[in-house]
C-alpha cells in the first residue's frame, strides 16, 4: 500500500514533498508509517546485530541508484530494511554491552519529531524564539545542578568532543589573555611565543578528544601531559602536583587541568576536590569532562561528583547517561564572560547592536552556526518523566555493574581490572592451562570478533597496559545479570574454540 495520503497528487511534483499547511496530513501519514515500521522492528529485535560483514552489506548499499527516485515512501522504507534496518546495531537490546550508547527514552523521541519538523535553528533569536529560551533554561538548570554559581552559562553542542574542544579553546584564550596582560606591550609576536609553552594536564585514562583539541588549537599533541593513574584508574594527584611543579620549573604554562568524571574505559572519577585545589594553586583552568558521569547529577550518587562545582568548565553528554538520542551535549562555564572568545559578529546574522539590545543570539556562544534544537529532547524528558526518573535508570545500571563485577571476580575464566565506579567492566579471558599473555591477547581479540560476527551480543575491546581486554559498558537497565552471565559463557565458548583449533607445537619440541 502506498503511503501517499493524496494519491491524486503527482508523486513527481516536487512541491508535494514540502511540509507546509497543505501537506501537513501527508507529513503525518508518512512519518506515522515510518514510525510504525521502526516500532515493529524494535519490538521484533531478538539480538543486537545480525553479524553481517562489511563485504556482506556493501553490495546492497552500492546497488541503490541514487539518481532514480522511487517516488514512494513505502518502497523506500522497504529498501531501507535491506540496506540498514535489518542489519543495524540495536542499542536497546539487553545484550548490547559495547560502547557508551544508551537506549533512548520515549519523551526525547517525541522531542526529536517536533524539533526536526519545526526545524528551528538555534543560532539566533530570529530563527528560534522560544527555542532559544528553552535551551537557556536547560543550560541554567544543568549549571545549577553542577553548582557553578550565578555567573554560569554554556551552550548545547554536538557531543563531548566538541564540548571539550570549546572548553580547551576558552582555557587557551583566557590563559593567553592573562599572560599577555602581564607585560606592558602585548602584541601578536608574544602570543606566538606563548602557544608552544602551553600545557594541558589530563589523566592517562582521559579521553582522546583532549589531545585532538590541543592539535586543533595549534598547541601540538605534545602539549597534553598524561598524568599517571592510581590502582582505581583515577588521576594520581601527587603526580599531578609534580607535573605542575615541573611545568613551573621549565617555564611552561599549565593552561588547563582536565579532570575526568567517568573515564570512558573504567568509569573512574578523578579526585575532583584535590584537583580543584591544585589547579587553583597553579592558576590553571579546571575542566571536568563529565561526558559519561554527568548522569550522576540526577542520581542518588550525586556525591560522587563532589568538587565538580569548582570547575571553570564542564562537559556533559546527555546522549550518554541521560538516555537521550544522539546528539545532545553541552559545555558549561563558571564565568559567562569567558564565552566571548567564540563571539564573532556578522552583519547578516548577529550584528553587535543586537547584543547591545540584549537580543539573545546563541551563536555568540557557539562554535557552530546553524544548530539543531537538541535541547527540546531534554526539555520534554524533564517535563514528562522528570530528572529523578532519569537518575534512577542510571543508578540501576551502576548497581548492575557492581553485581556483574562480583560475578566476574569469582569466575576463574576471567581477570577483571578494577571494581567499577560507574557502569563499565574491563576484563580479560585467561586460558586456564597457558598463562602466555600474547596468547591471551589473541584469544580475547578473537572472542570479541567472533561474538560480533555471531550477532548474539556485542562487547567492546580496549587495551590495558598494552594488553587486549574486553569491556562491558552497561547503560541499559533491561540488561539482567543473567544476560551478563550468558555473554560471559559465549565469550568463553568462542575463546575455548579458538584455543582448541590453534596449532600446537609438537610434543617433542616442548
Ligand atoms: C564519549 C566521551 C567523550 C566524547 O563525547 P562524544 O559525544 O562522543 O563526542 C569525551 N569524553 C569522555 C570521557 C567520553 O566518555
Automatic annotation (TrEMBL):
Lyase recorded as keyword: yes
TM helices/strands, residue ranges: none
UniProt keyword list: Decarboxylase, Lyase, Pyridoxal phosphate
UniProt key word Lyase: yes
Cofactor(s) needed by this chain: pyridoxal 5'-phosphate
Family recorded in the similarity comment: Belongs to the group II decarboxylase family.
The protein's name: Pyridoxal-dependent decarboxylase
Organism per entry: Streptomyces albospinus
Amino acid at each position: 500500500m502506498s503511503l501517499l495520503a493524496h494519491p491524486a497528487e503527482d508523486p513527481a511534483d516536487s512541491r508535494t514533498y514540502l511540509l507546509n499547511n497543505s501537506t501537513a496530513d501527508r507529513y503525518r501519514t508518512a512519518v506515522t508509517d515510518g514510525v510504525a515500521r521502526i516500532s515493529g522492528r524494535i519490538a521484533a529485535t531478538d539480538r543486537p546485530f545480525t553479524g553481517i560483514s562489511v563485504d556482506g552489506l556493501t553490495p546492497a548499499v552500492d546497488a541503490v541508484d541514487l539518481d532514480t527516485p522511487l517516488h514512494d515512501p513505502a518502497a523506500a522504507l522497504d529498501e531501507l530494511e535491506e540496506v540498514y534496518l535489518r542489519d543495524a546495531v540495536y542499542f536497546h537490546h539487553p545484550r548490547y554491552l559495547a560502547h557508551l550508547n544508551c537506549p533512548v527514552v520515549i519523551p526525547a523521541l517525541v522531542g526529536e519529531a517536533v524539533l526536526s519538523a519545526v526545524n528551528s535553528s538555534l543560532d539566533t533569536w530570529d530563527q528560534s524564539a522560544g527555542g532559544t529560551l528553552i535551551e537557556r533554561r536547560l543550560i541554567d538548570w544543568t549549571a545549577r545542578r553542577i553548582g557553578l554559581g550565578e555567573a554560569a552559562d554554556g551552550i548545547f553542542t554536538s557531543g563531548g568532543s566538541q564540548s571539550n574542544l570549546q572548553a580547551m579553546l576558552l582555557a587557551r584564550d583566557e590563559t593567553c589573555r592573562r599572560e599577555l596582560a602581564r607585560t606592558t606591550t602585548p602584541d601578536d609576536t608574544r602570543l606566538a611565543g606563548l602557544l608552544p609553552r602551553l600545557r594541558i594536564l589530563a589523566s592517562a585514562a582521559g579521553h582522546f578528544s583532549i589531545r585532538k583539541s590541543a592539535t586543533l588549537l595549534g598547541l601540538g599533541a605534545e602539549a597534553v601531559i598524561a598524568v599517571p593513574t592510581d590502582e582505581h584508574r583515577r588521576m594520581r594527584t601527587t603526580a599531578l602536583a609534580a607535573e605542575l611543579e615541573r611545568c613551573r620549573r621549565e617555564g611552561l604554562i599549565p593552561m588547563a587541568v582536565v579532570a575526568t568524571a567517568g573515564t570512558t574505559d573504567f568509569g573512574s572519577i578523578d579526585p575532583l576536590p584535590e584537583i580543584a585545589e591544585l589547579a587553583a594553586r597553579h592558576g590553571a583552568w579546571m575542566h571536568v569532562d563529565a561526558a559519561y558521569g554527568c548522569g550522576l547529577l540526577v542520581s542518588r550518587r550525586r556525591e560522587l561528583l563532589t568538587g565538580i562545582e569548582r570547575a571553570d568548565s564542564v562537559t556533559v553528554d546527555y546522549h550518554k547517561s541521560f538516555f537521550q538520542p544522539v546528539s545532545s551535549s553541552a559545555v558549561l562555564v563558571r564565568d559567562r564572560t569567558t564565552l566571548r572568545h567564540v563571539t564573532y559578529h556578522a552583519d547578516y546574522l548577529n550584528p553587535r547592536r543586537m547584543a547591545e539590545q540584549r537580543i539573545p543570539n546563541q551563536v555568540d556562544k557557539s562554535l557552530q552556526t546553524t544548530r539543531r534544537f537538541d535541547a527540546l529532547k531534554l526539555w520534554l524528558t524533564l517535563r514528562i518523566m522528570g530528572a529523578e526518573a532519569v537518575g534512577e535508570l542510571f543508578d540501576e545500571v551502576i548497581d548492575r555493574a557492581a553485581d556483574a563485577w562480583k560475578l566476574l571476580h569469582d569466575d576463574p575464566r576471567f581477570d577483571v581490572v578494577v571494581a567499577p565506579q560507574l557502569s563499565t567492566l574491563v576484563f580479560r579471558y585467561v586460558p586456564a592451562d597457558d598463562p602466555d599473555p600474547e596468547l591471551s591477547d589473541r584469544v580475547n581479540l578473537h572472542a570479541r570478533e567472533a561474538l560480533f560476527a555471531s550477532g548474539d551480543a556485542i562487547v567492546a575491546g580496549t587495551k590495558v597496559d598494552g594488553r587486549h581486554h574486553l569491556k562491558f559498558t552497561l547503560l541499559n537497565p533491561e540488561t539482567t545479570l543473567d544476560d551478563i552471565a550468558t555473554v560471559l559463557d559465549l565469550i568463553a565458548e568462542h575463546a575455548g574454540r579458538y584455543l582448541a583449533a590453534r596449532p600446537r607445537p609438537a610434543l617433542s619440541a616442548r
